[in-house]
Amino acid sequence: MTFSANDIGWPDVLMDILKTKDPAVVDALTSDEREKLIRENPVTVMRHIDRRFQALLDYILNGSSRPLGRVIHHFCRAEYQMRGSVHYHCLFWIDDPPNFEDLDNVEALVSFIDHHITVRIPAKDEDSHLHALTNSLQHHACTFTCQRGVGKVCRFHFPHAPSASTLLNQPASKKDSRFYVLQRAADEVRMNPYNPSLLKMWGANMDIQVVRSVT
Ligand SMILES: [Zn+2]
């Protein structure tokens, strides 16, 4: 799983920098003003991001709703890119997962994937919060960072083909993560996979996939 920061979009960070309890003050800021405040207050911003991530991790590991099931082991690493913003890469080992080598049990494997991962954009009247989050945070727009090499093909394979349901693929190797195709409507071909509960908790771009083996 990957969690990116949304420092210019998280109002609590900017409210703290501006020493205000009024969200309207932050709402009135332009993008340039937000970016300037973030650039000029790296320590405050990083403390906010780290605390938010620790709360997310606590929710995943100890939350009563167990959004990923019972986690028996985890590994997380913070990475800093050139622009200075942090993002987190994590692996979570889930207790008693279905056996992904057992392709006779396709229904259970697909059910496990669909239970934890989706690219769905819910309708506004179904879940307005998630509708806004998916539209603003989970859309993959290709840039020079993902279109490298000959042919400029996206290294994350966007846009993905629509699919009426989640399907299992015959992977090229045991480490090939593309052993499944997510259910995806025509207007979701550029959506990054997410977990609804975690996207709502984190409030910034995330990516999630099932990994069968890390060896
Ligand atoms: Zn791309």
Q: What is the fold's blueprint, element by element?
A:
Blueprint: E1 2-4, H1 11-17, H2 23-27, H3 31-40, H4 42-62, E2 71-80, E3 86-94, H5 106-116, H6 128-137, E4 167-168, E5 180-181, H7 196-202, E6 206-207
Antiparallel strand pairs: 1-3, 1-6, 2-3, 4-5
Helix pairs in contact: 1-4
This protein binds zinc ion.
Zinc ion is lined by residues 140, 142, 146-147, 154, 156, 158.
Quick summary:
Helix content is 33%, strand content 13%. With 215 residues, it is an alpha+beta fold. A hairpin with a 5-residue loop joins strand 2 (71-80) and strand 3.
How would you sum up this structure, described in words?
It is a single chain. The chain folds into two domains: 1-96, no CATH class; 102-192, no CATH class. The longest helix has 21 residues, at 42-62. The strands form two sheets. The protein has a four-stranded antiparallel β-sheet with strand order 2-3-1-6, with helices on one face. It has a two-stranded antiparallel sheet with strand order 4-5. The two termini are 17 Å apart. The mean pLDDT is 90. Helix 1 runs antiparallel to helix 4 (42-62). With 215 residues, it is α+β, with helices and mostly antiparallel strands. The relative contact order is 0.16. The protein contains seven helices and six strands; from the N terminus they run βααααββααββαβ. It is globular and about 60 Å long.
